[in-house]
Design goal:
Order of helices and strands: EEEHHHHEHEHEHEHEHEHEHEHEH
Radius of gyration: 20 Å
Structural class: alpha/beta
Strand content: 15-25%
Shape: globular
Number of strands: 12
Length: 377
């Protein structure tokens, strides 16, 4: 089998109302999908997290390297592209582009052998996951804190047992918002906070100490990703587990985080950190260092499917026991028209539970009409 074509699909959708994390307001969302064709008629799909036009340029630039190659040689092709661009892109959009290619190759491999990707990755330990609701971004509401509390309560009413709140809007405001959201979801639901690296370690520690008593599941990206010493300082000062890694890349980047003991929970994005090939290596390394692994997922149904197949094969966070702590799936609940529309059968939750697709490859089918509908101009 040989690769005969590689295509990039840049998609875009305008939101009905702007959303904000700690860093910016957004009025549209994009996606960049990778389609790889073979001479046996098998087509694989991948996705790149990051700036869509930049990751598309990366993928388009390496198409000549891929044409004529055997798509089953996933590790070889990963190393070929990484080595070819090592001098210019050990992190960032180069690796994000490589991630989409790698996921598409695994989709082809699964379809070729007629099995789900998780079986090729080592076999599923579980077929379904508890997922946590990611939402709770800022909107232009009359009473934004009350609006966030209502949104969080709705997630719990849908069956989610865990929700993640965006913080990073000032220590006092974040503290007030955390209190109101905790009251809205009750004492038993898990509550995480995510600052999207809005603080330095002084402010992050202050916020952490002010919200510790609200039983916070983890404090995500408290400081900028470059500030590894800041991560260590925040982790040493707080009882809240510290999470991060969505802005880190490859086993080499995560090796440095693990050796530094900067994280309790690693969050590589499968569509950014190197694809399924690399994220399996990162997960194995996390286990060796005793670091929990919960991937960042902020993409379309392709990103969700790829993350589910990887999660399916990972060990529990805790050593074997009667009640192990299992990894969770991040399930984005914010407005994103592209997310499920591109799938012929969307991946949905049932009372906060998501099943791993069991078809061959990633187990999903792409709706090409949706690709045309959302194609960026």
């Amino acid at each position: 089998m040989k690769i005969t074509g590689v295509r990039t699909h840049i998609l875009q959708a305008t939101l009905s109302q702007p959303l904000a994390s700690s860093r910016a307001w957004y009025d549209k969302r994009t996606a960049m999908l990778v389609e790889i064709e073979t001479d046996q008629g098998i087509v694989g799909w991948g996705e790149c997290y990051g700036p869509a036009r930049m990751t598309a340029a990366v993928v388009d630039s390496v198409v000549p390297w891929l044409i004529g190659q055997d798509p089953l040689r996933t590790d070889y092709l990963w190393q070929m592209i990484y080595a070819g661009l090592r001098d210019h892109g050990q992190k960032g959009v180069i690796i994000q582009g490589l991630s989409g290619i790698d996921i598409a190759l695994w989709d082809i491999k699964g379809k070729y052998f007629g099995v789900p990707v998780q079986q090729l990755l080592g076999g599923a330990r579980r077929t379904e996951f508890v997922c946590y609701a990611t939402g709770l971004l800022r909107r232009k509401a009359d009473d934004p804190i009350r609006s966030l509390a209502d949104e969080a309560a709705n997630y719990v009413a849908e069956g989610f047992s865990a929700v993640k709140l965006k913080v990073g809007f000032g220590v006092e405001e974040d503290t007030a918002t955390t209190r109101v959201v905790r009251e809205a979801i009750g004492p038993t639901a898990m509550l995480m906070v995510d600052a999207n690296h809005a603080y330095d370690c002084v402010a992050a520690i202050r916020l952490g100490r002010m919200i510790e008593h609200y039983d916070i599941g983890w404090f995500e990206e408290p400081v900028p990703p470059e500030d590894v010493a800041g991560y260590r300082a925040v982790r040493a000062a707080l009882s809240i587990p510290i999470a991060g890694g969505e802005c880190e890349f490859t086993r080499f980047g995560f090796r440095d985080l693990f050796v530094s003991r900067a994280l309790d929970i690693a969050q590589p994005d499968t569509c950014a950190a190197g694809g399924l090939s690399e994220c399996k290596k990162i997960a194995d390394m996390a286990e060796a260092f005793g670091v929990r692994y919960n991937p960042h997922v902020w993409g379309t149904g392709i990103a969700i499917a790829a993350s589910l197949h990887l999660l399916a094969v990972l060990p529990s966070h805790t050593p074997p026991s009667l009640r192990p702590i299992e990894p969770m799936l991040e399930f984005d609940r914010t407005e994103y028209p592209i997310r499920q529309a591109i799938l012929a059968e969307p991946i949905e939750h049932t009372r906060g539970i998501v099943r791993v697709p069991d078809g061959s490859g990633l187990g999903i089918e792409i709706d090409r009409k949706a690709l045309a509908r959302f194609a960026a101009q």
